[in-house]
Amino acid sequence: MLGVPAPSFPTPASQQRASSSGRNKVPLKPGRSLMDWIRLTKSGKDLTGLRGRLLEVTEKELAKHNRKEDCWMCIRGLVYNVTPYMEYHPGGEEELMKAAGADGTDLFDQVHRWVNYESMLKECLVGKMANKLIPSIKGVFSTPNTCDKSARAVSPRYDWFQTEADVTVVIYVKQKDITSESVIVDLEDGVLRIEVILNEYTYLLHIELSHEVDNDSSVHIAGAVGKIEVKLKKMNSNTWRDLGNPLGCHNTLMKKTERELFFRKCKLVSVAEITYNTKVFCLQLPQGTHLQVPVGHHVYLKHSIKGTEIIRPYTPITHYLEPCVEETSQNSSGSVYLMIKIYPSGVLTPQIDSLQIGEFVCMSNPDGTFQTSQLLGVTDLFLLAAGTGFTPMVKVINFSLRTVPCLRKCKLLFFNKTEDDILWREKVEELELMDKRFSTEFILSEPSDGWNGKFGRISLQLLSEILTRPPGEFKPFICICGPRPFTEEGVRCVQELGYLKEEMHAFTG
Questions:
Q1: I need a surface site. Which of 134, 188, 323, 401 has the fewest CB within 10 A?
Q2: Which residues, at least 6 apart from 164, have a Cβ–Cβ distance to it below 8 Å?
Q3: How far apart are CA 378 and CA 477, in angstroms?
Q4: Hey, which residues does 317 pair with through a beta bridge?
């Protein structure tokens, strides 16, 4: 619900968005940008009207502040006076008013759970709800919801054993289809963090180890039996009496939407120019991190600007399109590639662009809803991409051509403003020559006089020429990604052409 106010990022031509709701951004008044909000919060002005006092707020008191001129809301047990923020909210005042005088946690999680509201609204903090437990993101113990039948069905357990040289942590899960993408390991400064993705849940093991270990660890996954082994190398041959001290949220199982995003510092190791305003940034994961980004999922980059943490989503790509290289070979190198369009007046992208080789940026765990199982049995795959909405398609193309045996056709409809805006045009055209199943249609909204291809914007007429259902055996799947108006129009057109909900996926972050 509380989107970061960034009128110039994303711009209408960008799809670096993370909202999964149908909310549209609204035009903001001059002087109401994110930087304007940051300046206001640093001005010393009393934004709560309480002169620094913190209150315990009852539900009855919260409900009184339900007007645009006097609007309080609760997020995870903390109460904020969002009245001064109204004009700075990119989703508009109406969106904020949906939780006026009430608990807005669920609405917030539906739209932008990744937004660091604590940082954005710290000067608007009224206090906390009376008699209401606050699930602190700083590390209060949380116990699994054992009343949830689906949670009990996957509830893991862990154990550990040691040799003279190694310590092995073993996690047993009841889910038998665990893959390397489901296990994220971070080992740094003697702290071990293992997060296991179990469908809509995550299990967390978080321990300060009792003895020193090498920062490099190995991960072995026996998916058939639901066992995960993380082997740590001892720095000396001492016998450990215990594994270590539990840290915040250790040994907990909770829904993914409730788990706070975890960030680690990644080093920038290379930058490659793609077009006049788009670059590929290669980030190197820390030595103790085991992380693979699933197909169609994104990560978040975090950077502090004038004391306010700014977070934006980006979809990692492979640095190739051709399906001859296994995706895991890239992941094993510990590198993540991000294709990012730089907005000169943007909030975060100029900061990313100014990073020097060897400097660091914080990157989160992967997030997303796309499942490669949606592609099983697909014969005809259509990819509708606008601008950097091309980024999730890179891995989808690679995965589909490499692993979907019945695939007959993979067609990319690539919408751009001009020829100069087409990303990886040479690579796309090379792949057409390499694999006869793959084809591309470049569609420009502002073509030059010499352009011989299709032109225009996404429309029912344009798509009907390409997405008409052929007779005979046909199992289609359609992926759509672009600015929100593009994605919404694409979904509407595809549905009007008779395609079912389960035959499409719209990437909205």
A1: 134
A2: 234, 237
A3: 6
A4: 337
pLDDT-derived band of residue 23, with 50, 70 and 90 as boundaries? very low
Q: Which residues of 47-68 are buried (b: 16+ CB within 10 A; e: fewer)?
A: bbeeeeeebebeeebbeebeee
Q: What is the DSSP letter of 72?
A: E
3-state secondary structure 411-473: EEEEEECCHHHCCCHHHHHHHHHHCCCEEEEEEECCCCCCCCCEECCCCHHHHHCCCCCCCCC
Q: Is 23 helix (H, G, I), strand (E, B) or coil?
A: coil
The closest of 31, 25, 29, 40 to 92, measured between CA atoms, is 25
Higher pLDDT, 49 or 407: 407
Which residue type does 72 have? W
Sign of CA dihedral 146, 148, 149, 155: negative
Which band of pLDDT confidence, cut at 50, 70 and 90, is reported for residue 147? Answer: very low
* E strand spans, 174-315: 183-188, 191-198, 201-209, 213-222, 227-234, 244-246, 252-255, 263-275, 278-284, 289-290, 299-305, 308-314
**77 touches 132 (CB < 8 A):** yes
Helices of type H across 359-424: 391-403
Give the per-residue pLDDT at 1: 33
Facing residues of 267 across strands? Answer: 284, 360
Q: How many CB atoms lie within 10 A of CB 449?
A: 4
pTM above 0.85, yes or no: no
Instruction: Say what the pLDDT of residue 178 is.
Output: 87
Tell me, rounded to whole angstroms, the distance of Cα 313 from its chain centroid.
5
Alpha helices in 13-104 (DSSP H): 34-41, 59-64, 93-97
In this structure, which amino acid lies at residue 253?
L
- CA dist 469 and 497 (Å) reads 9
Can you tell me which residue has the tokens 């001859």?
324
Element housing 476 (H / E): strand 476-481
Q: What is the DSSP pairing of strand 55-57 with strand 125-129? A: parallel
Residue at 337: amino acid letter: Y
- The Cα 299–Cα 285 span in angstroms is 13
SS (H, E, C) 35-52: HHHHHHHCCCCCCCCCCC
Distance CA 283, CA 337 (A): 6
